[in-house]
Structures are given as structure tokens and as C-alpha cells.
Design goal:
This protein has 293 residues and is of the alpha+beta class. It has 6 helices and 17 strands.
């Protein structure tokens, strides 16, 4: 592709945590975005209309390989999982960085992403774990009741952006319908949203539905940052013990975008020492977009 005109930028569209193309979570990666201001980035993110779009520029932190800004159609996020995985893989696929561990600067600091041909594994940053709201009250804000709950507590968990993790019985998962106003009131300052989990301890697998605050509590097809939080929650409630626990999450089927997220949490001395999430990245489109005035 020839160099773009001065008023245009190259972009790639990829599907992240995608078992095949046209599944997973869509992501627009805008390249050479150094000169875009916040309003221009937000305008372009709204134009793409995906759950998130990223804007890549030169790093400003020593040791980082690149800087990324992450936007939903209405707001900027300090960190997010599928944009980090998709952006890192795209930069390697395009030959801008070598495969292996790359260091991404974002609003939450510098995070490491280990990229291979198939996809990437994102290492979470500083672990956040704090008590969440009452499970029955949170369930009610999702159209569920106390009988749908397993009895395990809600925690606010994350690595750069927090989610409320609510466990429900499998039969309840499909019936969850978020009340955005109720969730907004119940989760003030929680930038991620709420992750609703049906967990199978026998297989170490779960099915999740994530209702994202940055999407006005609409449903997200695949949420790497929430999957990192799930690993922290598993450790907090005793479902992941000392050492390394692998877990696998299915997400997105309810919105026609089936996704697979492979998590890993390491517990040492009863504390989460490390958590990561991996998935496949499928390129589906590339093009140029006009720079907003």
C-alpha cells in the first residue's frame, strides 16, 4: 500500500479472542496517530463504532515499544484487554515489531504482551481486589434474583480497570438483562462494568457475559480485562489455589460473536502474583480513514 495522503491514516480491523474470522471482538487499530488529539480520536472511534478502537503512536515512557490510546465510541479507557492483544499482534504482523514480548504504554502504565503467529498473551499489571456490592442487589440490577446466585461474594477485580464479578447458576446466565441506571448507581467509579459468570469447577471453564460501562452497559463480545479480573476472583474465593491455575472462558455467543479467552493465574502465599489472558487474533480488513478536522 502506498503512503497515505497527509489528511488520511492507515488502519487495520482485526477480530480478537476469535476462534475464526468474523467472531470474537472487533477492533480498529489506527496507525501513526501521534498527531491526533483526544477529540479526533474520539470522533474516529465513534465512526468505527466497535466496542474499542486503538490509536498507536511513539512511546513516551522509557522501555516501552509503542504507546496506545484506547477509546470506546464515547470515552477513553486507561486499559483494556482485547485492544491490547489485538494492537500488539497487529504491529508484529505488519513487521513493525518482532514477535515475542512487546511492551505497551497505555493509560494504566506499561504492560507486556507476548505475541506469536496465532495471537497474543497479555500480562496484567497491578492487581486490584476489593469488596463488591451485595450479590443479591447486583443480581437485581441484572434482572435476576437471589435464587440465581451460587452464594459466593462479589468482588471488584482487575489489572488496570475493575469489573464487578458475579457468579450465577448456568440457567440464569441467559436471563441477565442489565438496568444501566441501577448499575451506574451501584458501581460508581467502576470503569469496567460487570462480568456475570457461570463456572464449572470440574473442567476449569466458565461462560461469561460482560456488560461494559464504557458501552453504556451494553454487552461486550470478548473482554480481556474482565477475564484478567476473573482469574483474581477465582483466587479470592478459593477456586484457584497455590501455584498456577489455567482457566478458559467462553463469551460473546449471546451477541453472535463467540469468543474464547484462555486465562492463567499464579497464586503465591495466598496472594495473586500474576494473571494473564491469551487469545487468537484474526485480521479481516485494512484501509485508510480521513483525519477529522
Amino acid at each position: 500500500m502506498s503512503a497515505p495522503a497527509p489528511d488520511q491514516l492507515d488502519y487495520e480491523v482485526v477480530d480478537v479472542f476469535a476462534p475464526r474470522p468474523f467472531s470474537g471482538n472487533q477492533l480498529a487499530v489506527v496507525l501513526h496517530a501521534d498527531h491526533l488529539d483526544t477529540e479526533q480520536c474520539q470522533t474516529l472511534a465513534a465512526e468505527f463504532g466497535y466496542s474499542e478502537s486503538t490509536f498507536v503512536s511513539a512511546p513516551t515512557t522509557p522501555g516501552a515499544d509503542y504507546r496506545v490510546r484506547i477509546f470506546t465510541p464515547r470515552t477513553e479507557l486507561p486499559f483494556a484487554g482485547h485492544p491490547s492483544v489485538g494492537t500488539a499482534h497487529t504491529l508484529v504482523r505488519l513487521g513493525r515489531l518482532p514477535a515475542g514480548v512487546v511492551r505497551q504504554e497505555c493509560g494504566a502504565g506499561v504492560v507486556e504482551v507476548d505475541v506469536d503467529d496465532e495471537g497474543a498473551r497479555l500480562a496484567g499489571g497491578s492487581v486490584s481486589l476489593r469488596p463488591g456490592p451485595d450479590a443479591a442487589v447486583l443480581a437485581a440490577a441484572l434482572g435476576l434474583d437471589a435464587a440465581d446466585l451460587t452464594g459466593r461474594p462479589v468482588h471488584l477485580v482487575g489489572c488496570g480497570i475493575d469489573f464487578a464479578q458475579l457468579e450465577v447458576h448456568p440457567g440464569a446466565l441467559d436471563r441477565a438483562v442489565p438496568d444501566p441506571a441501577a448499575l451506574e448507581a451501584l458501581l460508581p467509579g467502576v470503569q469496567g462494568g460487570v462480568s456475570v459468570l457461570a463456572w464449572d469447577a470440574a473442567t476449569g471453564e466458565g461462560t461469561v457475559r460482560v456488560f461494559a460501562d464504557g458501552l453504556d452497559y451494553a454487552e461486550d463480545p470478548a473482554t480481556g480485562s474482565a477475564a484478567l479480573g476473573t482469574g483474581i476472583w477465582l483466587a479470592a474465593v478459593g477456586l484457584a489455589g497455590e501455584g498456577v491455575t489455567e482457566y478458559r472462558l467462553a463469551q460473546g455467543a449471546a451477541v453472535g460473536r463467540p469468543s474464547v479467552l484462555s486465562g492463567r493465574v499464579r497464586v503465591a502465599g495466598g496472594e495473586v502474583a500474576e494473571v494473564s489472558v491469551a487469545g487468537a487474533v484474526r485480521p479481516v480488513a485494512s484501509g485508510r480513514i480521513r483525519v477529522p478536522a
